[in-house]
Amino acid sequence: MSDNVLSGLAEIVEEVAGVAADDVTAEKSFVDDLDIDSLSMVEIAVQAEDKFGVKIPDDELANLKTVGDAVNYITSNK
Amino acid sequence: MTSFQAPQASAGSRIIGLGSYQPETVVSNHDLAARMDTSDEWIRDRVGIVNRRIASKDEGVVDMAVVAGTKAIEDAGLTPSDIGAVIVATCTMPSTIPNAAAQVADRIGVKAAPAFDLNAACAGFCYAVATGADLVRAGTARHVLVIGAEKLTDWTDQDDRSTAIIFADGAGAVVIGASEENQIGPVAWGSAGDLSETILIADRDSFIHQEGQAVFRWATTQIAPVAIRAAELAGVELSDVDVFAPHQANLRIIEAIAKRLRNNGAREDLKIARDIVESGNTSSASIPMALDHMRAAGEISSGDVVLMVGFGAGLSYAGQVVRCP
């Protein structure tokens, strides 16, 4: 289940931020490694909400530092 | 019981004149980077602005509105005495009274016209066009001058790099007149007062503060549906829309909304207003300024179907389809 979430999230990150999906791996930090700013994080969250049927409010978003954090959050809240 | 007389209604209304004014002083990203911790690259990436226009100390909302309004009247082929009402959409007057509109009317030469300001922040222009269109259709006024005019820099903390890079000054105006064929569609509008704290000026001694992420989320998810509804109300397919003119809030918001419109049937060759790049965010002035600039540059033409939508503090939103004058 996690793998589907990771690949789904990677697709979204590629679409929003132009980062190659293959580069979107669990240990990567959104800001430091993938160079994704806070506005793009909102776009990613909105698309992830649609795709996975979860709610990711802005204050939760602040805690999702790495791709793995996001995958865990989505998986636990689906 | 006999009823009272009603004004002479007309079948429809349309925009018959367009004009704008922006101050001479240009502030570039490089100018800002020289005095605060920011960079040209960061600003272009985050908001899409390269230059913005700033009013001089002696130049106010009323001054800018007068120039834009005068140009719109000339563009309509009218004289000030033809104007039956003046509405100024603004939220940046230096004090509450007198309003801008009465002063603007007087200075333009529209004697004794009904005149009022309308505060719906960045949705103000579309709110005012809706109101003006209804005044004309109902027969309350034959020609309505609608102006969006703002001096946002009066209310912006020039040391706050999150707002100083965005907000700018200017004015845009249209004249609305009666028309056998209705060329201003019904307005799709509303408010989200539960989010009112996300863009605010706390009191008369404070500056504009906004919660960037919350506003971005709202604008990129809630505004495309408003634009789509505006097209529906006008009886227009999204594929028939030639020009998309959203409030010039932030280039990334503009692109996000445009993308959603294209996903819903708007054409790939949809012309999109991106005046923010050279003008900054001028709140209620941004839509008419963008349209005036695009028309002058030949990017849009008289007769084009324009879908405009304003959104901002309130939170407020309003959009309608109009024919480009």
From TrEMBL, chain A:
4'-phosphopantetheine is transferred from CoA to a specific serine of apo-ACP by acpS. The modification O-(pantetheine 4'-phosphoryl)serine is found at S38. This is Acyl carrier protein. Pathway: Lipid metabolism; fatty acid biosynthesis. Carrier of the growing fatty acid chain in fatty acid biosynthesis. It is found in: Cytoplasm. Belongs to the acyl carrier protein (ACP) family. The keyword NADP does not apply. InterPro entries: ACP, ACP-like_sf, PP-bd_ACP. The gene is acpP. One of its GO terms (biological process) is lipid A biosynthetic process. GO terms for cellular component: cytosol; membrane. GO terms for molecular function: acyl binding; acyl carrier activity. Residues 3-78 form the Carrier domain. Keywords: Cytoplasm, Fatty acid biosynthesis, Fatty acid metabolism, Lipid biosynthesis, Lipid metabolism, Phosphopantetheine, Phosphoprotein. It holds the Pfam family PP-binding.
